[in-house]
Every structure is written in structure tokens, then in C-alpha cells.
Amino acid sequence: MKLLIAVIAGVLLLSGCTSKTEYGACIGAFDDKDPNLIYKVDASNVVIAIVFSELIAPPVYVIMDETLCPVGRKPNTQGTK
């Protein structure tokens, strides 16, 4: 019974991962960034990776796929001096 509760709690926490924002999908720590977007580390995904650090799959998934999320567009500075 305790194992079932732990599994359900784990699934609920992982379902809370941010995977997409209004500016696009989140990327992993080692993925190529879009030069037109501003990225920030998503704190909730990092907390989930730390909480599940004893397991292997959740932290690896979060770090490789959902660490940086776009939060805005870079201002267009072309043509200004």
C-alpha cells in the first residue's frame, strides 16, 4: 500500500513539470537555443529533479529535456545604433 501511494505521488509530481510556455517548448540543458528567445532555468523542474534524485529516470529526463524554458522574445536591435 505504501508503494502504491509513493508511485501515485511520484506520477502527480512529474505531471507538474513545465514542458511548454507561450513562447515555445522547453529545452534540455544541452540543446541548441533559439537565438530569438530568452531562456531561464525552470525552478519547478529542477526541484522535481532534486526530489527524485535517488531514482534515475526522472532527473535525467528533466535535465535532458525540460531544464530551460523560453520566457520572452529578445528585443529586435537591428537597425538601431
Reconstruct the topology from this structure.
Elements: H1 2-15, E1 20-21, E2 24-25, E3 37-41, H2 43-51, H3 57-65, E4 68-73
Antiparallel strand pairs: 1-2, 3-4
Keywords summarizing the entry:
two-stranded antiparallel sheet, 3 helices, 4 strands
Protein described:
The protein is α+β, with helices and mostly antiparallel strands. It has a domain at 18-73. 40% of the residues lie in helices and 19% in strands. It has 3 helices and 4 strands, in the order αβββααβ. The protein has helices spanning 2-15, 43-51, 57-65, and strands at 20-21, 24-25, 37-41, 68-73. The strands form 2 sheets. The chain has a two-stranded antiparallel ribbon with strand order 1-2. A two-stranded antiparallel ribbon has the order 3-4. The longest helix is centred in the N-terminal third of the chain and has 14 residues, at 2-15. It is elongated.
